[in-house]
Amino acid sequence: MLGAGAWYAGNFLPNESAVKWAGALNNVTERLGFADLPRWGTAPMDPVEGVGNEAFIAPVAPPFYDHMPSRRTGPGGVEKGEVEAIDKYTYTQEDPQNIRLLRAFPQLSVNQPEAIVDKTDTGFHVIDSVAEIKANILLNARCNAKLDRMYGYPYTRSCCTDYGGRSWTQNFILFFVAVYAVACVCFEGFTFVSSLQIRGLNLKVGIFAVALIYCFAADRTHLFPKGMKEFVPSEFWVLITICSLIGGLTIRMVKFRAPRLPTIMTVAAPDAEVEGGREAPPNPTTPVQDAGILARDQTEEWKGWMQAAILIYHWTGASKDLPIYIFIRLLVAAYLFQTGYGHTIYFLSKRDFSFRRVASVMLRLNILSCALPYVMGTDYMFYYFAPLVSFWFMVVYATMAICSGFNDSIKVLGSKILASFVFFSLVLNFTPLMKWLFAILELVFRIKWDLAEWEFRVTLDGAIVFVGMLAGVIHQRVERDAFWYTNYKFWIMPSIMSIAGFTYLCSSMSDKAIYVMLHPIISIFPVLAFICLRNASTSMRNHYSTASAWLGKCSLETFILQFHVFLAGDTRGVLLLDIFKGDGSLLGDRWRDLAVLVPVFFWISHLVAEASGHIVKIIVGESKQRSTLHDPADDDENQLKIVEPVWERMPMLNSMHLERARDFCKSVSSGLHLRVGAILGVMMLLNWLY
Description:
Strand content: under 5%
Number of helices: 29
Keywords: Glycoprotein, Membrane, Transferase, Transmembrane, Transmembrane helix
GO molecular function, one term: transferase activity
Family: Belongs to the PC-esterase family. CASD1 subfamily.
Membrane topology: Multi-pass membrane protein
Number of strands: 7
Protein name: Cas1p 10 TM acyl transferase domain-containing protein
Number of domains: 3
C-alpha cells in the first residue's frame, strides 16, 4: 500500500504539493505497470492464491484544521485545501492510469474527529481501532479468497472472494435446478393453450427451485452486497415496536368453522304441549362461541410473532445482550413445546402411526433444509431448527406408537411420557450413543455434522417437549366443558407471579453459562404462564393477529431461508442492496434495504411453504381415506380419456415381458417405501460425490 500524499502537503507550499504529488504518482504507476493490468476485480482468481498480490494507493483524509495548531496550518505547514487538491488529482487518475484506490480509508475518519489520535498536532494519524479496520480491509482483499479455498464453509468472508470455487457436483446440481425451474415455467405456459398437465412441472412446485437459485445468488455471488452486523440496543427495540404495531393493528375475530362445544338440547317436560299429535321439538340453546385453548389460529399467531422476534435478533446481532438472549431462548423453547403438543394431539385423535404419516411429516420438515446444503455447500445441521423439530417429532411418535392400544388410559399415557423423558435424558446426557451415531453417518454416508453443537441444542430444550406432550394429553382426554380447563382467570395472578419471578431470577445472572445450565427446567414456567394469560378469557381466545398468523404459517421456511436471503455470509452478516448509501445505521441507512428485502423474503418464504406441501403430496401420494371420497363417476370419466399408445399394439412389445415391466414400474411409482428409499439413495450418492 502506498500513501504519501500527506508528506507532500506538509513539506511543500500549496502551489507545489499537488504538482509534486502528481509527478510522483505518475512515476509509480508507470514503474508498476498499472496500465497493463486488468481492472481490479475483473481478472479470474488464482486457484490457490485467489486475488493474489496487488499494489494499492490510499487517498489521504483531510485533517480537522480547526483542531490543529497554527504552526501546522500556516505557511510551511498543511494549509486548508492542500490535501483536498492532492486527493482530487488522485481520484481523477483512477480510470486513466488504472489505479487501485482504497476509497474506504479516508471515509473512516470523515466528520469523526475522535478517530484521529493526534488531531491537535499532525492531524493525520488514526486511533488503533481505526488502524485495525484499515489493516483488515487490506487483509480481506488479499486473504479472503485464499482462506475460502482452504477452509470453505462457513463463508463468513463475503468480499474479494469467489467463495472457494465449486465442485463439478455442485455445478451439476445448480444446472439441474436451473433447468428444472425453467421447465416448470415453460410447462406452466403450456397449460394455458393445452390440456397437458404434469404434476411435477408447474409453478406451484417450480417456485421451490427458483428459491434455491435465489439463495445461491444472494449468498454465494456478489449480486447482493453484504454488511456487518452492528448491535445497537435501540435498533433492536425499534424493530420490535414496529412488528408489535403491525401485529396489534391486524387483530381480528377468529372465524368459527364449527361450534367448539356440543349443542345443548332442552328436554321437553312430561306435560309439554303437543301440537298436531306430536311433541314440540326441543329448542337448542345457543352454542358458546369459543375458539378453545391453543386453537389453530392462536398457535400460528404465536409462531408468527416469535419468528419475527427471532429474525430481528439475528439481523441485529443481539446475542451479545444476555436479557435478549434469554428471551429468544424462551421463544425456541415455546416452539418445541408446540412440537410436542401438536403431534401428540394428532396421534391421540387420528391414531395414525403409519409409515405414510412419518414420511409426510419428515419430508415436510426437511425438504428445504436437505436441498439447500447441496446448492449452497453447507450442511444439514447448519439449519439447526429443522433437524431439532424432526428429532423431537420422532421422539413423540415413538412415545405414542409404542403400546398405542393403551393410549386411552391417562395413567398409561403419563407413564409412557415419563419413561420416554427419563430414557432420552439418560441417552442424550450420559451415553456416547450420539457420538457413535455421528461416526456411523460419517463412515457410511459421508455426513459430517458438528456433534458438540447438536448435543448442545438437543439437550437445551429437552424437558419442554414432554411438557407439551402432557398438554396434548390434557387437551384430548379432559372434558371440554370442564371449568378448570376453560376458565383460566384463576391462573392470571400465579402466571404473572411466575413470569415476574423468572424475570427477577434472570436479571440477577451475569453469566450466560449459568442460565444455559438452568434453562431446561426454568423455561417451562414462563411458557405455561404465557399460555394461561393468552387464554385467560373467551374474548382473548376468540381474537388473534392475522399478520402474525400469516407469518406463522410459513415460519419453518422463514427460519431456514433467513440464513441466505435475509442474513448473509452464512448468518455472520446481513444482506444489503447496492442502491442505497448511508452511515450503516438502521434509521440512517439500512431501513431502506429492509423495506425492499423483507417483503421479498416473506413472499418467497410463503411460496416455498406452499411448494413444499405440493412436493410432499407428489412424493407421498393421496391418502386412502381421501381417495375413498372421490366420486366413482369421476374415475369413469377419466378412464374415457385414456388413449392407448400405438406402440403397445405391436406384437413384439405387447407381450408378457412388457406387462411385467409395466407392473414393476407401477409398483415402484406407487410404493412409498421405494420412493423414500430412492430419495435417500440419491442423497447418499451426492454425499459421496460432493
